[in-house]
Amino acid sequence: MADAPSGLSEHLVAAGAFSEGERNAVYRAIETRRDVRDQFRPDPLPDALVRRLLEAAHAAPSVGFMQPWNFILIRQAETRERVWRAFHQANEEACRMFEGDRRAQYQRLKLEGIRKAPLSICITCDTTRGGPVVLGRTHNPATDVYSTVCAVQNLWLAARAEGVGVGWVSIFHEDAIKAILGIPEHVKIVAWLCVGYVDELYDMPELAVKGWRERLPLDKLVFEEGWQDCEEM
Ligand SMILES: Cc1cc2nc3c(=O)[nH]c(=O)nc-3n(C[C@H](O)[C@H](O)[C@H](O)COP(=O)(O)O)c2cc1C
Question: Can you tell me which residues the record assigns to a coiled coil (predicted)?
């Protein structure tokens, strides 16, 4: 390998651990972030705040620095209504995939805040960005979508720190939403996020609060040195 060109070292900056207060803030955002469906306030988010959330998303890692994301901001109630209808149809289909008590329990869940949250952000992945050969993506094309998910999580955590709730909606046929927003063929929808101020959040995942599913014990998910047999979870 060639030696690093001179002049690069001026870009190396100190990178020690954060102060205790800063560390606590980071862990607090991670631990108290929630998926929000119903607690949204109707007041609009200031443009500067939305910009900070988008800057956080845009700071995410990406394969080959591909940055395959776009952020489509949807504020118009009419568009959100059309997207809600697409959700509703898909949700009825999803409901029928469960049987008996589980179906009744599913029906009681609220799984979106599309009409209630004042802002929706559709985050997409342009699979062609950076050309046909992208560094690091050569053996796993899905890494472009993984990158976009990193952007979603950055935005979600920044939102928590700002007192803003985020709810991820994935229950829809992708083509239905692509048609509503005019998204081209080669671009994938990764996330539909409902975004708005919140005054309250659940202290654990809403699906756990409502008895749908519990958090798994971390110790059962950590293996040493290789895969280990594990019970069905
Ligand atoms: C890829 C992805 C898709 C999701 N889709 C939905 C959805 O369509 N509707 C919904 O209510 N929640 C959705 N969620 C939120 C999860 O249900 C939620 O993250 C999980 O129950 C844990 O709760 P928490 O995020 O509050 O910790 C989604 C989350 C992810 C990561």
Answer: none
35 lines ligand 1 (CB under 6 A): yes
pLDDT in tens, 94-131: 999 999 999 999 999 999 999 999 999 999 999 999 99
For the chain, give every domain's residue range: 34-202
For ligand 1, the distance from its centroid to the CA atom of residue 172, given in whole angstroms, is: 14
The structure tokens 């100190």 sit at 14
Rounded distance between C-alpha atoms, residue 87 and residue 95, angstroms? 12
DSSP assignments along 84-153, one per residue = HHHHHHHHHHHHTTS-HHHHHHHHH-----TTTSSEEEEEEEETTTT-S--TTTTT-TTHHHHHHHHHHH
Query: CA-CA distance, 218 to 73, in Å (whole number)?
Result: 36
- What tens digit of pLDDT does each residue of 9-53 get? 999 999 999 999 999 999 999 999 999 999 999 999 999 999 999
Q: In whole angstroms, what is the distance from residue 44 CA to residue 151 CA?
A: 22
Residue 183, C-beta contacts closer than 8 angstroms, at least 6 positions apart: 72, 122, 124, 177, 189
Any atom of ligand 1 within 6 Å of the Cβ of 160: no
**Which CATH class for the 34-202 domain?**
alpha beta
